[in-house]
Amino acid sequence: MDEIHITDQFADTDQRQVTEQIQGTGQIHMDIVVPSYRLNAHYLQGIIALPHPEWLSVHYYIIADNPLLSIPPFIKAAAENNSIHLHLNQCNKGASVSRNEGIRMSRSPWILLLDDDIIPADDLLFVYAAAIRKYADVIGYAGTTRFPPASNAATAAMQVSGLLDGYSVAEKQKHLVWSSSSNVLLRRDRMDKQLFDGKFAAAEDIDFLTRNSLLFERRYIAVPEAIVLHPWWDNGALQTRRMFHYGEGVAQLARKKPTNYYIYYDLPNSAETLLVLSLLLPLAWWFNWLPLLATLAALVLLADFFVCWSKTVSQGKGWSPLVAGSLLWNKNCYEFGRLFSHIHARYWPGFAQRIDLRFENTYPPDFPVDKWKWGKMGLIAWGVLLWVL
């Protein structure tokens, strides 16, 4: 197995290669970087065996991020015959830092980032190579990451929640500020050299790819035909920790430049409202307002549930209260994660602060119109009125 040294700087890009590719001639060189905690041979074998055109030179960089795992025989054999470059982290560093290591190890002008648990379409590299030949003067290309059909209430709720939008945005827009790092092709000489921020709890791909887009004042070109299939996490179980961490990551985006130029304020969400009510408990006990506080807390959650149920029905997921309940759980895990992150960072302006993840206009107006939000407030007001009467 070749020993690989990680440098602190980017490898020099062969500008002649890039120029030839912009002109539609010459061999295309692409490195595929896959950080992996699991080293699941079932998925990695499919990635490494991807066919590609003769005029595309491909090199694989597998970053093993779990030192306790034994290397599967297939991976070990591929590394020993130099089919892949395998790097073993001495400790678990996380996907962001592992991607950075793979990027810094690599040498080609084009870097394809893939997750380690995806199933790529057989023509994935053909589609990307054709895109480069057609138009190489870009910062990168965003492919499509699809999920299987919903198999239970938890997966149906994930589809309604909007969390998966970043994976399939290439099918909806032609030019993107960011996309999921599960399937994105980047041009080496047009990347912010800080790369991924390893301090992010989640949403580090939004941070890095948006920084690139804003730095070079360009957007990624959507390549919807470049398709990979992503299985449901944990066989379709509720994603409590994932949603909480995603909320933390979005809160970090709101505190970091340049994404903090896209923040605005809105009405308090359920997590923030429940926090305020809990802080009022001593006062409520003193003035005998505990029944009122308990009623308000119940109304907040009940109104939240009915809004989630309405979203579920409107998006064609049926009338199942289980889907609505799973959506409510995901939503509140996300909101509590964001709130926790701001409190932990002692960032008090983060209360009721939001960020526009479209990154279209800096400092968007506060309190944007949203039918679901105002519908929820109407239900709470109606409930309070009934309780008073």
Mean pLDDT: 92
Number of helix segments?
14
Overall number of domains: 2
Question: What's the assembly state of these chains?
Answer: single chain
Runs in which pLDDT lies below 50 for 5 or more consecutive residues are: 1-11
Reported by name, the CATH topology of the largest domain is Spore Coat Polysaccharide Biosynthesis Protein SpsA, Chain A
Q: Structural class, from helix and strand content?
A: alpha/beta
What profile does the largest beta sheet have?
Answer: 9 strands, mixed
Total beta strands: 11
Elements, N to C (H/E): HEHEHEHEEHEHHEEHEHEHHHHEH
Classify the beta-strand content into a percent band: 15-25%
Tell me the span between the first and last alpha carbons: 77 Å
Helix residue percentage: 40-55%
Q: According to CATH, what is the class of the largest domain?
A: Alpha Beta
List the defining traits of the structure above.
389 residues; alpha/beta; Spore Coat Polysaccharide Biosynthesis Protein SpsA, Chain A; two-stranded antiparallel ribbon; 14 helices; disordered N terminus
Task: Please provide a written account of the structure.
This protein has 389 residues and is α/β, with parallel strands linked by helices. The protein folds into 2 domains: 15-237, Spore Coat Polysaccharide Biosynthesis Protein SpsA, Chain A (Alpha-Beta Complex); 245-388, no CATH class. It is 44% helix and 15% strand. The protein has 14 helices and 11 strands. It has helices at residues 15-22, 41-48, 73-80, 95-105, 124-134, 153-161, 165-168, 204-216, 240-255, 270-279, 281-286, 290-314, 321-344, 371-388; strands at 28-36, 56-64, 85-88, 110-114, 119-120, 140-146, 175-176, 183-187, 220-229, 263-265, 353-355. The strands form 2 sheets. Strands 1, 2, 3, 4, 5, 6, 7, 8 and 9 form a 9-stranded mixed sheet that branches. Strand 2 (56-64), helix 3 and strand 3 form a beta-alpha-beta unit. Helix 12 crosses helix 13. The termini are far apart.
